[in-house]
Amino acid sequence: MPEYTITLDRGACDGIFACLVRDDRFVEREDGLAGIEGEAADGTEPTEATVTATFDDDRLADAEQAAAACPVDAISVTEEGNL
Description:
It holds the Pfam family Fer4_15. Helices cover 12% and strands 30% of the residues.
């Protein structure tokens, strides 16, 4: 299985949430922006401007679809070895 990294730029996120329907690891935070499962999805202020999570599973296609669906290009997916 490929190892890959998902990067979410909260500064670019507009809370459109097209990512949520393509990859359920994306969550809606209380602050109205997207987050990535496993980070603190509650709270009113994001703790980081950019969130990065690395995965080693068979869901690379889901992550790539979420990134492609984001109309403001706030999500990027990088496979290990392509950094």
